[in-house]
Write a structure and sequence with these properties.
About 30% of the residues lie in helices and about 25% in strands. It is α+β, with helices and mostly antiparallel strands and about 260 residues long. The chain has a single domain (about 5-255), classed as Creatinase/methionine aminopeptidase superfamily (Creatine Amidinohydrolase, Alpha-Beta Complex). The protein has a five-stranded antiparallel β-sheet with strand order 8-7-9-14-15, with helices on both faces. Strands 1, 2, 4 and 5 form a four-stranded antiparallel β-sheet that branches. A hairpin with a 2-residue loop joins strand 14 (about 245-250) and strand 15 (about 250-255). The longest helix has 23 residues, at about 5-30. The protein is globular and about 50 Å long. About 50% of the residues are buried.
Length: about 260
């Protein structure tokens, strides 16, 4: 069941989004050669808790940390560790969530550690732009379009997919975005691929986390024995970009973007 949000609930989600966005920004600023992924997690957790919020991921389904930190061929859900050290040339995906007054924010970004390869930078850039191709698809729809069911998740996913694939990359299919609100993961699922005119219709009051996961090689992935860390099956690089989006009567709003 999709839970539509009231104006007051969106107000609380904006607060959760600001905290989430700042925690992600601070985590990204801490990405340096020689730093452990546990240090990134500590920065994220302290930033969230500074505002009286709670890390969404800590304990979620048994996840042991406050942030997912995934390096290079790790797609998502990397478990921070004091023994995992970030090195010059790595690309580092940080995924962050915060609960504030009962509502969640969720956001992710891929950060370069120092000088990275041109191909790695292009992957990061294309992944970020693929998100905005999806977001602009929502933004271009009128309220009437949404109320009459003319905007579908297939339209959004298609915009993400076609941009990524036109640039020679592939879209992860095993993991997708999601609705968000009182729960971190709500209905509907939000695929980063799709067919125009198909899928769940979007309407005012919905909140979704759109999160392209884009691979330099094939789209296939596998999960490590730890039950969390997701890798590209062909060992290619992967990038991740995510924001929480509120679909209001005045159009979509990025709740986790802080500049």
């Amino acid at each position: 069941m999709i839970r539509l949000k009231t104006a007051e609930q969106f107000r609380l989600m904006r607060e959760a989004g600001k905290i989430t966005g700042e925690a992600l920004l601070k985590g990204g600023e801490a990405v340096k050669d020689g730093v452990s992924t546990k240090h990134i997690d500590d920065v994220v957790r302290s930033t969230i808790e500074k505002y009286g919020a709670i890390p969404s991921f800590l304990g979620y389904g048994g996840f042991p940390c406050s942030a997912c930190v995934s390096i290079n061929n790790q797609v998502i859900h990397g478990i921070p560790s004091p023994d995992t050290i970030i090195r010059e040339g790595d690309i580092v995906k940080i995924d962050v969530g915060a609960i504030f007054r009962g509502f969640h924010g969720d956001s992710a970004c891929t950060f370069p550690c120092g000088a990275i390869s041109a191909e790695a930078q292009r992957l990061i850039d294309v992944t970020r732009e693929s998100f905005y191709r999806g977001y602009e698809t929502i933004k271009a729809a009128s309220k009437t379009d949404m109320l009459e069911g003319r905007l579908r998740l297939g339209d959004v996913g298609h915009a993400v997919q076609t941009y990524a694939e036109a640039n020679g990359f592939s879209v992860v299919r095993k993991f997708v975005g999601h609705g968000i609100g009182r729960d971190l993961h709500e209905s509907p699922e939000v695929p980063n691929y799709g067919t125009p005119g198909r899928g769940q219709r979007l309407m005012p009051g919905m909140a979704i986390a759109l999160e392209p996961m884009i691979n330099a090689g094939g789209h296939e992935v596998e999960v490590l024995d730890d039950g969390w860390t997701v890798l590209t099956k062909d060992n290619s690089l992967s990038a991740h970009y995510e924001h929480t989006i509120a679909i209001t009567d005045n159009g979509p709003e990025l709740l986790t973007y802080i500049g």
